[in-house]
UniProtKB/TrEMBL annotation:
<keyword id="KW-0805">Transcription regulation</keyword>
<keyword id="KW-0804">Transcription</keyword>
<dbReference type="Pfam" id="PF12833">
    <property type="entry name" value="HTH_18"/>
</dbReference>
<protein>
    <submittedName>
        <fullName>Response regulator transcription factor</fullName>
    </submittedName>
</protein>
<dbReference type="InterPro" id="IPR001789">
    <property type="entry name" value="Sig_transdc_resp-reg_receiver"/>
</dbReference>
<dbReference type="Pfam" id="PF00072">
    <property type="entry name" value="Response_reg"/>
</dbReference>
<feature type="domain" description="Response regulatory">
    <location>
        <begin position="8"/>
        <end position="125"/>
    </location>
</feature>
<dbReference type="InterPro" id="IPR020449">
    <property type="entry name" value="Tscrpt_reg_AraC-type_HTH"/>
</dbReference>
<feature type="modified residue" description="4-aspartylphosphate">
    <location>
        <position position="60"/>
    </location>
</feature>
<dbReference type="InterPro" id="IPR009057">
    <property type="entry name" value="Homeodomain-like_sf"/>
</dbReference>
<dbReference type="InterPro" id="IPR018060">
    <property type="entry name" value="HTH_AraC"/>
</dbReference>
<keyword id="KW-0238">DNA-binding</keyword>
<feature type="domain" description="HTH araC/xylS-type">
    <location>
        <begin position="415"/>
        <end position="513"/>
    </location>
</feature>
<dbReference type="InterPro" id="IPR011006">
    <property type="entry name" value="CheY-like_superfamily"/>
</dbReference>
<keyword id="KW-0597">Phosphoprotein</keyword>
Amino acid sequence: MKSGEGCRIIIVDDEQLIRQGIKHYVEWEQEGFKIVGEASNGQEALELIELTKPHIVLTDIVMPIMDGEELTRIVKSKYPHIEIIILSSFGEFEYVRSTFQSGAVDYILKPKLDADTLLNVLKTAASRIPSLQAANGDTNVAINIGHMIEKFVSGYDTQYDEKLMSETFNYEYFCLVAADTRLLKDKDAINKDLIILRFEELFDTQLKKIKIQEFTTEENVSVFLVNGQEDELIEMQGVAAELLELDSKLSVLICDTFENFSKIGIKYNDVIKKMLQYRFYFPETKIIVEEDLAKEGPKITSFNLDKFTNDFKHERFDSAFDYLEEHVRELSAAFTTDIFEYKAFFGNIIFNISILLSNLEYDVKNLENEKFSFFNAIDEAKTAASVVEQLHRFVEKAKEIILSRKNQTGHSNLQQILDYIEENYAEPLSLTGVANHFHFNPSYLSSYFATHNKEGFNEYLNRIRIEEATKLLMNSSIPISEISGHVGYSDHSYFCKVFKKQRGLSPSQYRRNQKLNK
């Protein structure tokens, strides 16, 4: 049985703004109340009452399908212990009087509705409910226990009242069970409350010798500290399986049993939080137990941004996108990756693709305008698959831009020339030699190259060669005198001259600086 559960209330009004306003008027749980559901008419309210078993119904008078007058009559007939409070406008006195004849306890005029008035009326109604008065003695205990739980899960090594603990929790073993409703859509908000209530009912009916204490540390995740006999706690998965019948988007997280109350912080931070991360990657998993976290995920190789960028710069887009797709599959299978880092990777890739296409003078105006919507969607994504979907949508748009440019006259011919230079930069290439290879007149090739590329032939060839020389200086011990030959320069002094012009340092100074910076 859960201690200090508070007074349960449902709100019935056909105006959503009224319902939302009431829900946010007051810090309900601090005042000893809990909004367990809302309905837009009396018919919906009757179904909700059967599920939530409220102490108080706060209802409007004028509503479609079934109004507040009929609702009051039916509720007081079937559930005489439930208190009814009426919301009315100035001109509805006759309706209000009829609800009082049926058993309503009080009414509030909507134009005068404020937090203080609402609380006073609710507290008066709650004082008439015997079951709530009997539970008042448990409330302070629940508050103290809740405070200690909050301290431990926040990382504090706090002292606690051993006597209070032994009086509250009668059994040796503890367990944390979490109901993860993060994947439920906003329109299912009512169901989230029902799920928590159903959880408590299952504990009460199926596991007799236990005590539970609910606490919440993040939105849409309710965690229960369960105290009971070890053999009963082991049956927790059976309870979880019944709870999952309520909604296909729900998941239940169960940690191993532990004996010391003070370990609740460790179990929450080292187990439950990791389970929540696990579900981000594997949302189809309905019951997650501590054993799942011991599974060894695939080893992830670092993303080679230089390779990806180089493929892009030379417009080897198929190669770049295939490599990206392969890394994304690998990354999305590793639940140990921090969710923030995971999302940051995708945001960075989208940013880099936009910049690279812009540098290649593709028309990325629309893509630039849209990229922030992709950033927002990734930030709000609740699963890894949703993040990947956003990347795929962005890449498809990028491919459309690339394809439109490729269809332009002259671009495909230029790309063949650029690819040829890149593949043969180490050979003694010349404008005349390349022109002959492609059956062009050398002067025409020079003019064609300058028209369709932002760099001239020799400038482009030198850049490709120096980029390769830079990699060799950084990643190999090949003597500098030999590197010039490796990248296509027969004259070493000319190589040094070109290198210094592009990098601002001589090859030897560049290599020395790289070693010092490592």
